[in-house]
Write a structure and sequence with these properties.
Elements: E1 7-12, H1 17-28, E2 33-38, H2 41-51, E3 55-58, H3 66-76, E4 82-85, H4 91-100, E5 104-106, H5 111-119
Parallel strand pairs: 1-2, 1-3, 3-4, 4-5
Helix pairs in contact: 2-3
Length: about 130
């Protein structure tokens, strides 16, 4: 897959490290991804407008929550799937994330599952 065919993703996180980890994970799994870091909720609406993102990942913490990201996404970008990224996953956290508007929750320490969720036809938004 060429760089021009890279899948645009937005990663909402207060730190840059998860963005690089997501990008590396997807590339190792054969997905040419173009991950853009969104450091705050204030930037999210504009980034969604500009990027043509097919997937929105949220790393909860430091004032960034799945429900908050979902609220911004839902205003005019509801078709962009939202996936939570957590360092540890429990059934309770997964249920919380689903209730907050995420389509799924992944852990980057489980690369095969994370890859399956991120590349799933039900997760990736189809392009018009």
């Amino acid at each position: 897959m060429s760089e021009s065919a890279a899948v645009p993703l937005l990663v909402v996180s207060s730190a840059r490290d998860p963005v690089e980890a997501v990008n590396a994970l997807l590339r190792r799994q054969g997905i040419a991804a173009h991950c853009t870091w969104v450091a705050s909720l204030k930037e999210l609406d504009d980034r969604l407008d500009e990027s043509g993102a097919q997937l929105l990942l949220c790393v909860p913490g430091d004032g960034i929550g799945v429900a908050d990201v979902n609220e911004v996404r839902s205003r005019s970008h509801g078709a962009v799937p939202l996936v939570a990224v957590r360092p540890e996953i429990t059934e309770e956290l997964m249920a919380e994330d689903l209730t907050a508007g995420a389509r799924d929750t992944i852990n980057l320490a489980q690369p095969q599952r994370a890859h399956q969720v991120c590349s799933s036809r039900s997760t990736m938004r189809s392009t018009p």
